[in-house]
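Q: My collaborator sent me two sequences in one message, no labels, and asked for predicted structures for both. Can we handle them in order? The first one she listed is below.
A: Yes, handling them in the order given. First sequence, followed by its structure tokens:
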Amino acid sequence: MYEKFYRSLYRIRRVEERIAEVYPTDKIKSPVHLSIGQEAVSVGVCEALRPDDVVFGTYRSHALFLAKGGNLKAMIAELYGKATGAARGKGGSMHLIDLEAGVLGTSAVVGTTIPNAVGYAYAIKYRRENRLVVSFLGDGGTDEGVFQESLNFAALKKLPIIFICENNGYAIHTHQRLRHPALNICERARVVGMPAERIEDNDTIRIFERVKNAVDLIANGAIGPHFLECMTYRWKEHVGPNEDYQLGYRSKDEAEPWIRNDQVIKIGALLGEKEKRAIEDAVDAEIADAFACADADPFPEESELFTDVFK
């Protein structure tokens, strides 16, 4: 188990570190919202899912895309704006999709994939399929009216869905305590009769265990949905490859406990050195190949501008 967790955590971290290195060269054609520091949530959740389960994400979804098995080459090509990208070079970092892997879409607009996920869960129930949906949202997404509407509908219809709130404390540069009179996101789920739990410390294993429990309950016909608030922290600026502590809205002292609790290092320490190195070497080679392919791949043809548009 630890080998799978470490491979996924390390792979996401190294992909994003490489993105941060390449970003200043202008090869990457879209803004990037990095998940460095937040990898544990996506890995813990996705390792607990079954292959047919599906996920919907936010604009900060590199970690989710990769943890669920999304195609790495297609993701990097999308960041480069290439025709071989996940959205054929037209969506960029914030609009990733891989239907075969069960990544049904991410969106730049806050809160938009919450009702998409609920609608898909409704379809699963209507078709009597034994699978489920996971809706990823940030703490900022809970400020949108569609959040409460979607939770209410999911609870009313007893849909097979798990809501995962990645609470990194900030909606861009505004802390949750400046937006909410009470830090009670779980209570807002419980008020519609939904089981809800807050998971502290960015703990990969605990997130996995709690999601696995919810998956098993839903699969065995127990009443859904479920809600998990996973406390986490982003190390980089809201958008881009740099740090932003100099802006004054947060401090390095606030970040330090989260950095000391780095799940990549903690899970890696549970492996033997030889085993760990083999995983790292294989992942590093895969990443180098993905970026080399993105460099060489063609940009979309002009005709792509008129493909898949309404009019």
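Q: And the one she listed second?
A: Here it is, processed independently of the first:
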Amino acid sequence: MNAPIVHGGGITAAAALHGGRPEDWLDLSTGISPFPADLPDIAPRAWHRLPDAHLIDDARRAARGYYRSGEILPLPVPGTQSVIQLLPRLLDQNRRVAIAGPTYGEYERAFRSAGCDVDRIDGLDAVRDDHALVVIVNPNNPDGRIYAPDRLIGLGRRMAGQGGLLVVDEAFGDMVPESSVVPAVADHPNLIVLRSFGKFFGLAGLRLGFVVAARPILDTLEQALGPWAVSGPALSIAASLLRSDTSAIGAAITQRRDALIAVLEGSGLRICGGTALFQLVEDEVAGALHAHLCAHHILVRKFDYAAHWLRFGVTADSDGDNRLAKALQSFDR
């Protein structure tokens, strides 16, 4: 389990194996919005200087308003992946961890690499009294499962009663703000919420995320990350976009999700889950279909732990829809 995990987005490797220029491939293997947000003006000093405290504070205040974290100022981090690597530091040695899955594999890898015992659980009811930390991805990647906030808050109370922590990863939560537990963090100091910035805003290259948690936890993570963990330009962009009207972004993503569903269902594929940014398909010949799409220079996400699954990200426009539909319809079962 400690071997590197193959994620989506490997266009360079796919092109090397199947031919074509990487820029000519249709990459549907990630859950990133195909609409990069328009970048705001960035002051030259943000590029010239190390990140000043006022830039950090401004981004944190903007994140507080966007994520509705109340009195808590979310901590900007260089991508939530950086925090996943640090989570084991919040535990005493030889403590058990539960991860609701199948889900994003880096959680299990990080905890096992740190020597923790990890249990894969299939739902909240499987959490045991000896679990010191529980990870829930909500909405889940890759099946889109969503737990209602009251259920998660109830689990958080239970974990607090046994001296444990609850980590809720809301990387795909921007499109379902009603499902977020961020507003509850101020009243639950054992609750840690991770939020991705790049997925919804289509700016994954910024490597930016936010953590919402009680001050002692944020202090521990901030110290572990070290000074200047997030660049000045990234902080400036976040402060501006998190205060902007994001309704057009949400509407565009919804339209693209609906178009993707129409293409997949029109091609006879069975959708078994998903979010606004991806759809999960279950098919007994998923491996052959993946290879077929690669031959047409279309990359989707396959899973080593579920050979019958493929995850399709949303396309950017009708041209992408048509290209995907044509490739799917030419697949010979």
